[in-house]
Design a protein that fits this description.
Number of helices: 2
Strand order of the largest sheet: 7-6-2-1-8
Number of strands: 8
Largest sheet: 5 strands, antiparallel
Number of domains: 1
Distance between the termini: 13 Å
Radius of gyration: 13 Å
Shape: globular
Length: 90
């Protein structure tokens, strides 16, 4: 799915953490390389496990943003304040 960043006007792709949502290729890649995985039915791990603990726990409803270069994640509230989802064209 696509959205527009409200401050910059830049188009980004996004994925809402869910078991039902179709995952975009960039999310499937993160699962494939092991950077992302389900911890429980409702929680997702994102990041590499390391000595510094650089792994994040996300929940269903949280949002991943991809701008073509890097992946970021936001709470649903921050996504609503900062982005406007684009309508899918049929």
């Amino acid at each position: 799915m696509k959205a527009i960043h409200l401050k910059t006007g830049k188009e980004v792709e996004y994925w809402i953490v869910s078991h039902q949502e179709v995952k975009p290729k960039w999310i499937e890649h993160e699962f494939y390389i092991g950077k992302m995985g389900w911890i429980t039915e409702y929680a997702l791990r994102y990041g590499w496990i390391s000595i510094r603990g650089e792994s994040y726990r996300l929940n269903i409803g949280d949002v991943f943003i991809y701008d073509g270069k890097e992946i970021k994640f936001l709470s649903p509230e921050k996504f609503e304040r900062g982005y406007s989802p684009m309508q899918n064209k049929i």
